[in-house]
Structure formats: structure tokens, C-alpha cells
């Protein structure tokens, strides 16, 4: 009577074959102690492959020479010093699958054999005997006798996975036999989506996107779209498509089905689906992304650190989010920050920066963590946190300690920072009116500037603009600085740029609302001009010039100017998305304009939009532009 008579035995034999491959490789390489190291855990192995194999080898010894060989394999020796460790390792591996009975049997029966038997095993056991002989072909035959097609596909995928794991040639007879059997099973009956996705992933790793098995699997998945999916099924299908980088028309159906499943998705499902949507560049699935974000806000506490990282990265990729997610993040994230997951802290700060979300609870927690643990952070993580605070114009309560810690880190690890990261950090400091004069001379040093250019690319306008603004800050705001200056060749003439890194363009809609009342107030359109470039490189939205008596001059008489007035028409894009705080770049620009001699007048959208009537708008502008005149005649 054959020893393999059930599906559980078939599963065990699949795992036996994988482990036998590892053993055979060790023998073929003539490393006697490799086997002992493998079994004692010094060589890592897949948990799913290790546990049942020894007990299976003991059961598979009744019918042939292969059985005798397997019987010898299960008694392979470790050194005498490793015997106890071997026993504990087997118990641990077997207990991982809950197979406690088998584990007990194995730990009671494993015993070392004498070293002189090792050579005999080495001579008799080869890769060809295991994988090109009769072992795997017989396993394939046994699998075809299994009563369930689902089980056959499942274990065929396991065997293919073993071949992928250990680099077996995709065109070898063994793998060809397995692929043929897989194609045959796929063409016969419907297969459950989890087994299809598993097989598709294995086949893709074996042969790539052009694999016939992958094509068959994707066709079968497409046919399953008419059926109701479970949350796990949807997540697995997305993961398979992301792996294969494959998009189909039926993906729209998958999106719709997933939207109907939103209320049932777990945190793990949401993480997998969002990550896959990002890999597939499905930016058009906005409705699904927003619903996933909304669901994520309700399950925020259920995400593991790694899952939350993937969610944040995906939402940053798409640029869409639900406001509820930001609220949940602000409520629950500070507690996680206190636990010290540095990668999560950095990603969260990047997310806040991209969304222009100025969150006091998050930023305070990050600042406190920085003061306590910054020595443990990598240089990119340090840069990420400081840059986010600077650009969002947030000065934490512990700012003195935070900048002292930053200064000490820069002092001790300056050479470890990438040159561009140094510039990013120092440039962000000036947004918070913290002037790093101890390091500016190092940055303006020709050697540092050469390092900056030696990274393989010419200096872009963003880096040059940051250097120019650093130099401008030292000139305008650090009048006591007598150190090195930025060479003239590195200056830029205009801070305006396509990516709006240094100043946000004037809001055209707000200008269309302001120009009428402003013309009425000043007596015509010839008393102001728009989009004026200053000598320092900034762009002024509206400029008004006054004579020595404070009267507004028409453009034709600007040579008599005594005072210059810069009107800043501040639309929504110049503020943080959740507060009325100006972004760091806008706050810096206004400080510099004042230092350059301009009287800066801010006209924010949220104030002007409250003025409904034309006369109210004119009165509002009058109070802003001429605050010393208390009476205004209508």
C-alpha cells in the first residue's frame, strides 16, 4: 500500500521536495556542515517549507530506494555540540504550523548518524536524482490523483515556487512538467481567485509577463469579475495586476466591485489595494481612492507601521486624500511618533508637507522626538523633518532645543549629509528666522560647491535659488555676518519658477476682484502696476509708489518716488491648507521685501471675500493701504 494516500500527505511531499533541494545543494557543494547549519537556523529558510518535511521524510520510506534515501536524510547529523540546538529548532519550526503531534514524534526520534555515513549520502544524492529523476514526476502524478482541483493547483504553485526560490532553470524537464500540469489544470475547471493569484505570482517570477500560465491566469481572473468578490480576493487581484504591471478594460469592473466592498475592507486590504493602484498608475480611479482614504481614516489605529507607510506613500503619489484621514492622522499619529518609528515619522512629515497640512499635535510630537533621539536618525530623515517644519512655517515650542540639537548634529556629521540635503536644511531654517551663519561659510566654500556639482548633474535652478536666498538672508537679516559670500556666478536673477519653489504666483481670480475697487480708490489704473520684478529677484503682485507727502503717484511720475508699497494678493495657495498661516517661502519673501525698503500690505483672500458690496471693498482697501487716514468720504 502506498504511503501517500491523502491530500495532507501530498502537501507534505511538496514541502519535502523543497527541503530536499536545499539538502542536495549542500551535498553537491561538498560542504559537510551546511546541512547542520540549515537545520539549526543559521541558514534561513522559508517557514512554510521547513516544518513538516522531516516527519514526511520519515513516512516516505516504505516503497523504494528513494524512501531509503529519505530515511537517511532525516537522520543527517549535526555535530555533537549542535544536537540539542537541532532538537529545539525542529520543535520551533513544527510548532509554527500547529503540527505539535508530528513535532513531538520528530523530536523524540531524531538521532545523529555516524560521520562515515555522510559520504555515502553525498555520493548517492544529487540534484538530478531529486529533480530530474523520479521524485518530482511521481509527486506530479500523485497530485493529479487528488480529489480537488483547488488543492492540485495550490500544490503545483508550491512546487513551482520552490523552483523559483532556488533558481531552477525554467526550461528544465521538471519545471516544464510542472508548467504543463498547471496549464492543464487551468483549462479544465474554475479555480478560486486566491489559488489563481498565487499561481499567477509564481509563474510571473518564473517566466515574466509573457508566461502562458500568467496569460491563462489573467483570463481566468477576468472571467471571475462577474462574480462577487471578497475583500481578500479584491486585494489579491490588485496585487497580481501590480506585479505583472497589467491593466485591462475589466479593471473598471474591479474598481466598481471594490467600491461596493469598501465597508468590509480591512486595514491590510486598504494598504495592498492603494499600493497596487499606485504601481498601476491608476490615477483616474479618484472615486475609489477617496473612498479608500475615507475608510482608512476609520481604521487608522488598525494599520501596522509598514501598512501605514504604504498608505501615506500611495496618497502622496495620487495627491488625493479625504479630510477625515488627515483628522484621524492628527488624532492618532502623535502616539505612534512617540514610539520612535523614524521611517514613519519621516513619511508622515513628507505627507504633511505635500498636503500643506500644518498640524500642531504632529509637529510638536516630531520636535520632541527630534530633541530626544535625533542622534539615531539618518541624515535624510533629519533633513525631511526640518524641511517640512520650515516650509510649513511651524516653530515648535521646543524650538531652542531642537535647533541646538540640529546644530550639534550638523557640526559632528556635516560630511555625512549630501550637499543638496545640507542646502535644503539651511534654507528651511531661514523660513523660521533661524539663520545658520555657522554653516553658511561652509556652504559658500568653493570645495562644497564643487561637491554639489559633482553629484552627476548640473546645478538646477532650485538649488541655485536656495543658495541665492541664503546669501540674501545673510545680507539683509544678518548684518553682523562677515563671512564668506556666495560667488556671483551662482546667483539667479529671478525667484519665479515653474514649480513655484520660492514664491506663489498672484491669484488671478483674487486680482480680478481687487482691481476694480483699487482703481476706484486710487483714481485710475495708471496709479499701480502688476507683476513687478525687484532687483533682488522677487515678483510683486501690485506696486504703488508714493511721494514725500504720502500721495499716490501716477506711473508717469514714478521718478519722484519716496516710498514703495508692495500689495500681496494672497490666495489660498499661499497658506497652509488647514490654517491661515503663510507658507514659509511667503513669510521669507515678505521679510526680505521689508528689508529692501518696501511697505508690505497683505490682502488675504479670506478677508477680502467677506466684503460683499463694492463700497465695502473700497473701504477695506483704503484701511489697508492708508492706515493713517481715519476719515474716508464716500
The helix tally amounts to 31
Helix amount, in percent?
55-70%
- Radius of gyration equals 35 Å
- Major sheet size, sense and barrel closure: 4 strands, mixed
Short description:
With 634 residues, the chain is mainly alpha-helical.
What does this structure look like?
This protein has 634 residues and is mostly helical. Among the domains are: 7-145, no CATH class; 508-625, Endonuclease, Chain A, CATH 3.40.960. The protein has 31 helices and 4 strands. It has helices spanning 7-28, 34-39, 53-59, 65-73, 83-96, 100-109, 116-124, 127-131, 135-144, 149-165, 173-186, 193-207, 212-223, 231-244, 251-260, 267-279, 286-298, 305-318, 323-339, 342-355, 360-373, 379-391, 399-413, 419-431, 437-443, 446-453, 461-476, 508-522, 584-595, 605-608, 614-625, and strands at residues 529-533, 539-546, 563-570, 598-604. It has a 4-stranded mixed beta sheet with strand order 1-2-3-4. Strand 3 (563-570), helix 29 (584-595) and strand 4 form a beta-alpha-beta unit. It is elongated and about 100 Å long. Residues 1-130 and 628-634 have low confidence and may be disordered.
